[in-house]
Design a protein that fits this description.
globular; two-stranded antiparallel sheet; 76% helix; single chain; 286 residues; 2 strands
Length: 286
């Protein structure tokens, strides 16, 4: 029972970390129709910045959130304006291919520059808090804090999309781009905000990631593949579906890593994807 509870907490937390990045990729693809291959690399950079803030300034991971989110939101705005917007006038097929090539170039550049600049490996943040003891059960208080923060961020994102003017504009563009144009919504502005928001969300996931798992400059593209599996599992543009797919993947990885081996963590994402799509081809929530 103790092992099961630990695996359950670890799997849900891992799924929550995946969910933040998956939300970002789903919003970017839903609004811009851009398949951002560099998405996982922004998570890696968010983890690197968190590690630097902790080792240099002693800033705890939840304090790093206040720096990571705005920095990468502005970074996402810059990437969209300088590299994505110039190709926005292409046809749909050409735009998709060009966006994949551009973001792949961004991913490779980020990984090469980071690997060159990194003087020592990032082993993760060893931030200790006293565990919570429930009888014979010992639960990591740090993991519970992270889980609470991820839930709070998810609720904040939901409220933003449901109640704010910009959030409603993003939802309208995701659901019907032509209808949004006819309704007078500034689709270009929505695209810029979507890319910034999506980049900030995945970088925020990196804050939690680096505290639990070592960060390597070359983890970005494998993480992007996991995010793609998640948004296909949940249905493209479906945020509740992305959450369900993330938790399912996190739990599957937790169980497989414990009983089989951590090296199977990337493979299990595609076994889960194939299994779900055989049963529900339109995703978990259609």
């Amino acid at each position: 029972m103790e092992t099961f509870v630990q695996l359950l907490i670890g799997g849900v937390l891992q799924g929550g970390i995946y969910a933040l990045g998956a939300f970002g990729l789903s919003i970017i693809f839903g609004v811009l129709r851009v398949l951002n291959v560099a998405h996982g690399d922004f998570l890696m950079l968010g983890g690197m910045l968190t590690y630097w803030l902790y080792t240099t300034w002693g800033l705890p991971p939840w304090g790093a959130l206040l720096a990571v989110f705005p920095v990468f939101f502005l970074g996402g705005l810059l990437v969209e304006r300088t590299l994505i917007r110039p190709i926005a006038g292409m046809g749909q097929h050409e735009f998709l291919v060009a966006s994949i090539l551009i973001t792949l170039g961004i991913a490779l550049a980020i990984e090469d520059v980071t690997a060159f600049a990194l003087t020592q490996p990032v082993k993760g943040i060893d931030y200790f808090l006293p565990p919570i003891r429930l009888g014979t059960l010992v639960v990591s208080s740090l993991r519970l804090i992270f889980l609470a923060l991820i839930v709070a961020l998810t609720v904040a994102l939901h409220l933003f999309l449901q109640r704010s003017l910009m959030g409603k504009a993003l939802r309208a563009v995701m659901e019907d781009r032509e209808g949004a144009l006819l309704a007078g919504i500034d689709v270009q502005r929505a695209a810029t905000v979507a890319f910034g928001l999506g980049t900030a969300l995945t970088a925020t996931a990196g804050v939690f990631f680096v505290t639990l798992i070592p960060v390597d400059p070359h983890i970005g593209i494998p993480l992007t593949l996991k995010y793609l599996a998640i948004i296909v599992l949940g249905g493209v543009g479906n945020l509740p579906g992305a959450l369900a797919g993330s938790v399912l993947l996190g739990l599957s990885e937790s169980v497989v890593s414990f009983y089989v081996g951590a090296e199977w963590s990337l493979t299990v994402a595609f076994f889960v994807l194939i299994g779900v799509l055989l049963l529900r081809p339109r995703g978990l929530l259609g």
